[in-house]
């Protein structure tokens, strides 16, 4: 009660509103002024630094990436090309069948890291786990497209009647399609079984498509084929997001927000 009486008797003088405003205005002069121009410059600097950091990460990951993946992709692709040319197979069928090999091998490499417990180690790196996986997927994508273009140029030089643009679109289509299937199945099964399933789907689809189908494709305009590749590319990005959410960010990794 004594404390209560003391507090009741204590009088706090009201501060003049004008003095408060003057104090605020005085302190405002010492605050850092962020103009819209400075904000734009800071934002641009942040983006440049982010791009530079990602490029550095790509360089590091490329140096650390299992070289067996690239060598195996090249050997299998060249083997398929040599066989197709030797037996005079339809170049469109050959391109369609061979193109997804680097994608499947690349996903094997990524999932192998999870099976062997490498993902936990990578979580302690300087870069975020999300950035590391994105860098690896980017390397796989660039490698797959580069090998596909290389294969298309060889087939176009070997078969004079082949349209190079159609050949490129024909090889990019299965790359996107198998990427979608592989990422979705990996999101569901989260193990090497998903690669076996994706390979089975790829083999079935390759057997379902015959030379007559590609004769019809030869009559389709390059614009329509390119549009189909773009649509599949968008679906690949969507399936990549599902892979992040369902596979990388599953159970032990759920605290990492992908």
Quickly describe the structure.
The protein contains twelve helices and no strands.
List keywords for this structure.
mainly alpha, disordered C terminus
Gap between N and C termini: 57 Å
Determine the strand fraction and express it as a percent band: under 5%
Overall geometric form = elongated
The helix content, as a percent range, equals over 70%
How many β-strands, per DSSP?
Answer: 0
Spans of at least 5 consecutive residues whose pLDDT stays below 50 are 250-258
Average predicted local confidence, pLDDT:
75
For the sheet with most strands, the description reads: none
Keywords: Membrane, Transmembrane, Transmembrane helix
Transmembrane segments: 68-87, 132-155, 167-188, 225-244
Describe what you observe in this structure.
This protein is mainly α and 258 residues long. It has helices spanning 2-9, 17-28, 36-64, 67-86, 91-98, 101-115, 118-122, 129-158, 164-189, 193-208, 211-217, 222-248. The model is unreliable at 250-258 (pLDDT under 50).
SSE inventory with pairings:
Layout: H1 2-9, H2 17-28, H3 36-64, H4 67-86, H5 91-98, H6 101-115, H7 118-122, H8 129-158, H9 164-189, H10 193-208, H11 211-217, H12 222-248
